[in-house]
Structures are given as C-alpha cells and as structure tokens.
Amino acid sequence: MTNMYYGSWKAYLFSLCFRFRVIVRSLSTFLLAQMPSKTYIRNEAGAAGAVKSGSRGTPVTTPTSPSSPTSPSLPTGPSPQATQALTQLEALRNNKTYSSLREHIIYAGEYVADPLHNINDAPGLLVYLTRNLYQGQHYLSLLFAGAHTPQSPP
Asked: What pLDDT sits at residue 106?
C-alpha cells in the first residue's frame, strides 16, 4: 500500500514539475523577447526589436525603423538569446513529455511572438498559464488580482 501511495505521489510531483517548467520557460522567453538589447526594453506595443515565429517555427525578425532621426539607435531585431529561447519553447510542442500541454505551449509561443505585446503584458501571460495549468489551486488567484487577462486561444 505504501509503494502505491508513493508512486501516485511521485507522479503528481512530476506533473507539477513539468507544468511549472512550461510557465517558467514561457515567462523567461517572453522577458528575453522584450529586451532586444542591454539598453532597450520594449514597453510599447509594436516597439522595435520584436521577435515573431516564422511559418516553419523558426524565429524571424520583425523589420522596424526608428521613430525619429534624433532617437538613440533602436534594435532592428530580437537578441540572439530571445531567438534561441523561442526556438526552444516551440520545440517543446514535439516533446512527448509535454504533449498534454501542447495547446498552452503553442499559445505561449504565439503570445511571445506577437509584436503588439510588450513588457507590461508579462502578468497577463502568467495569469493565463497559471489559470490553465493549475486549475484546482484556488489560492493562486492572488496572482490574478489586477493583472490583465489575455483572451483564451481560439
């Protein structure tokens, strides 16, 4: 009886672990995508340096131009770290371990790649993933207070 209890507890902990990993990887990818350089943070929708996913899942840069000739040099694309992180996040879709979370991984990748999202939208991604991956943990609703909730995927 003890071994059966231990086995089910171990499976439960593993389930929590890989769901948490999806949240952490999604948030870190989002934050990297909002910092295309060490001196620039994307804090407006459509700002320079956005990363978006190509048709085959390979990240491509979004062409942008500086808003004024007197502004400091703006990044023309995402950082290499952001591109690599998005590629790794999108690779989870094909990972057998994460197959039950495929829908949420796709959503997170699209959220990160959307050039209209900026650093201020990070809480919205956290709320969406937490609500969907930890539906039974009502105490996590404290995270949702005051955060903008993104729309559910189609």
From this structure: 96
Q: Which long-range contacts (CB under 8 A, 24 or more apart) does 75-81 make?
A: 75/36, 75/37, 75/40, 75/48, 75/49, 76/48, 76/49, 77/36, 77/49, 77/51, 78/32, 78/33, 78/36, 78/49, 78/50, 78/51, 79/32, 79/35, 79/36, 79/37, 79/49, 81/32
- φ and ψ of 67, to 5 deg: -75, -30
CB-based contacts of 123, cutoff 8 Å, min separation 6: 146, 147, 148
Average pLDDT, the chain: 78
Q: Which helix (H) or strand (E) holds 51?
A: strand 51-53
Tokens 């131009």, residue located: 65
Residue 122: what residue type? Answer: A
Q: Tell me the domain boundaries of the chain.
A: 21-63+75-144
Give pLDDT tens digits for 15-73.
Answer: 668 899 999 999 999 999 999 888 889 988 888 888 865 533 444 444 444 443 445 57
| pTM of the complete model | 0.73
